[in-house]
């Protein structure tokens, strides 16, 4: 079973002790980063270890491996490491090039297990496979690499596909490699390094141990665990893992949902071969390109031309679009009706999201006026769905008069980090409109604020996000999500 390691990077042993106490229930092993400690703390390390009552890894990093010891301080670093081997550590991190036999002999003498480590902050080193191939009983092998480039990502997946030798840690740093940390028990990695969310992360991509245990249910993961997730690039602070994992937990449904920022879409193929993936949410920029990886697309996907959901059905990958119905439900709920027959609606924007929304609104019976900054795109979309179009400027005010009671905002103007933008600044709300802005970050956009001040009704994008996820959850798990 993979272990959880809490990395201690505070300047003092006292501060570290607070983290040990706070996270004791979700930690198997501690890693004391001696390079982060103030020098006056070094001699107090043996006493602290006895009080912590957990196995501790001794680590003293140099700059090249993400630590604080400079190349000029290498002798001082090695002397410190050597002297601390007399303290009651359970493990010591020895970089792969620290080859002198004396280290192994002292470890054997002190009954400390060495962790042979390799770090690459720029990619995957050519000798990674050979390094892991040398893993043998009596030492733990650890490699921390970077897979932001598609080539590196592919190499790592290939190595993981072959399976890891026992007592090996293979992880990728940063957001792209996040899955290698959370899925350590699935990938056969010996340990997952974590950092407290309130402290300094020991390396890029560390997760808080409580989040690992509570949101991702790390202790229950194994090679049989059904995996779901979201692909896109970048994924930033996607809310989907929080939404889906909550439903899995509340419904006591086996499975885990992870963010997979993919540098390039073709990596989906080896990722699907490696993991027992049951379903994937798909977001920018892959909603169209992902169609190449779908065995059977729904008629909705074919009409909209974009797919935000992949799910497995008897070994076939099905493509669905839940954005469209997920958008419609909150609107119908707000209006208290079941269709939009005879309603005239202005849609702002003609991008990917707008396509699904235009489809959904038309299906529900509405007549639309599509306004877009690039008018030709509004025209193209409107002609495809047999609707009206116009420019996103005061020149549209005349024609908008008939379509202004419901306004749907689908552009990313107003979305974080462009929160100061208002795509409708040429329009003065009168107070009898309903403005539905599908942006969900921030919760209230600038244009929503303006509409609210004028007395208009407003609806934000979060309910849509939840509704489209709810439909995906059913496709992924066959179960209803909790309310
Ligand atoms: P997209 O395909 O890139 O389209 C962007 C649209 O925004 C285009 O119409 C573009 O106009 C317009 N635009 C961009 N900046 C603008 C500005 N400063 N002023 C006026 N118009 C501007 O993106 P998308 O996939 O449609 O996504 C759009 C938004 O919808 C995003 O904020 C996304 O988070 C949100 N969304 C929310 C949900 C949800 O569940 N709530 C689901 C999907 C999407 P041009 O054609 O002139 O460039």
Describe what you observe in this structure.
The chain has 18 helices and 20 strands. The protein has helices spanning 13-23, 45-52, 74-84, 101-110, 128-133, 150-162, 178-182, 184-187, 209-214, 240-250, 268-274, 299-304, 323-335, 352-363, 375-384, 397-400, 446-453, 462-477, and strands at 3-8, 29-33, 56-59, 91-95, 113-119, 140-146, 168-173, 191-194, 227-232, 256-261, 277-282, 296-297, 309-313, 316-320, 344-348, 367-372, 388-391, 406-409, 434-437, 457-459. The radius of gyration is 27 Å and the shape is elongated. The chain binds NADP nicotinamide-adenine-dinucleotide phosphate. NADP nicotinamide-adenine-dinucleotide phosphate is lined by residues 284, 323, 349-354, 372-374, 377, 392, 410-413, 415, 421, 423, 438-440, 461, 464-465, 468. The site of NADP nicotinamide-adenine-dinucleotide phosphate has 27 residues, from helix 14 and helix 18.
Helix content estimate = 25-40%
The mean pLDDT is 97
* Strands, total number: 20
Biggest β-sheet description: 8 strands, parallel
